[in-house]
Design a protein that fits this description.
With about 350 residues, the protein is an all-alpha fold. About 75% of the residues lie in helices and about 0% in strands.
Length: about 350
Amino acid sequence: MRTSVPGVRPLRIILSTLLVIFSNALIHSVFYIVLRDGNLPGVINAVVAILWGIFGVYFIYWSFNLAIEQYPDRWKQKMIPILFVGPAVALLAWLLLVPTIRTLYMSFFDSTTTNFVGLANYAEVFTNRILLGALRNNLLWVVFGATACIVLGLLIAVLADRSSFEKLAKSIIFMPMAISFVAAGVIWKFIYFYKPGTEQIGLLNAILVSFGFEPQAFTSMFQPWNNLFLIVILIWMQTGFAMVLFSAALKGVPEELLEAARVDGAGETRIFFKIIVPFISGTILSVSTTIVVFTLKIFDVVMVMTGGQYDTEVVATQFYRQFFMYRNAGFGSTLAIVLLICVIPVIWINLRQFKKQGGF
């Protein structure tokens, strides 16, 4: 009859775990050094990097899972979730949490991040005329842009679901989502194009001239009209996103509920506001918060269309200028933190709604 020697199994588990850690470190270090210092042709180097990325991650999880399988059940249940979720959490912390903390730290220093200035940068944000204009423009984008995307997306979803051309209509509305905001800015730059004293090749000005009106400099006219013309681009692109999600939510409204309301004599408007809207309120909130967060971070359209000129600056473009063009790291970091503070309440609302729906 065999008897187990006390301490042998724990020792074997510890040794196998150390072996897995050492072998992973050795194998991946070799691949890294070969890719960094090797003289392989470019194509082969790229293929090796791709294969290393795919099979290397698989080997890490497989080898660590193999080591954890030797642990007692009590420890195994605790270690496996850490194994599979831990790397993702660590990566997110490294890419998001650590830079956020570093940016917050830098926001209390001057442009060279050597002299501590306390809250002076934050005071400057809310007293500088240009930055107050950027904050005001961000508010315009949220109030008019996000609201229009949500309202039009819901309206189109309701109308398209009752149309015989539902697929075609939704495809046309959703199509702008297929291009980037930079590309959209270039397209709309040609649409708004204005050149005084010559034939107008911009689409809108060509239409105005053909009807006998004077051409307009849409993106350089006085506030707030030039900002509103830029907001139209956001509406053109994001309405399709809202429409698709609202349409999916509308498909989940029970038809029997709607028929019962119609039998009771309720009109379509009353059904919409009293039954449909409350039923899809979770989707409305999720779509609203997503678009608001996206709108607060708007950068591409403004940079491509006007470069922030003509009083069209937003917080993101000012952050870019201060941090990368003027090399004012302290003030640029402050703007990034201000933008983060604006986004946090919206994200919190979204997470709270997600929790109510059983997401956590």
